[in-house]
Amino acid sequence: MKAALVAALGAGVAIPAFGLFLRYRRDLNAARARLAAVERHVISTPWAAVEYAERGDGDPVLVVHGIFHNCVGGLLSVRDYSDRRFIAPSRFGYLGSSMPPNATPAAQADAFAALLDALGIDRIDVIGESAGATSALQLALRHPGRVKHLAVLVGNLPGSPTAVVQPSLAKLFNRQLPLWALRPGRLA
Asked: How many structural domains compose the chain?
């Protein structure tokens, strides 16, 4: 009787866990396919390597992604717009962008300015999304002549705990499974 109860409890945990694992693998494979479908480039700056992706023609727009995205996610966030040239860098530590030892939103803004220099862009419109809003704001503050317009979408405030990933949490959040599990509706 006791063995049957243990087996039933084990199955009650193992079956949902296996289903969750299958959902995770499916989502991970879909994310890898989205990454493979976009041509990405990396430039070297004095602060770190910066990866970026771009699409479209017209006046340029820099799209700075939030915590759950990267350069590809930045492009996906503006997928319904086609009359502009969208440039989406990966912030420090995301995909092919390096994580310098003293990464700050200000240093990230300076790296974005170096990216604009490399692309031959003097002035640009900027969209800062969620956690990317802080470095987008820093770009406007540190390089005001470079930013024509700044739009902040669901922004965090400079100085807030979410403005910079704390070093103690960086190792945890540099893993795919915890970030996948934190996405809204993922575990529902």
From this structure: 1
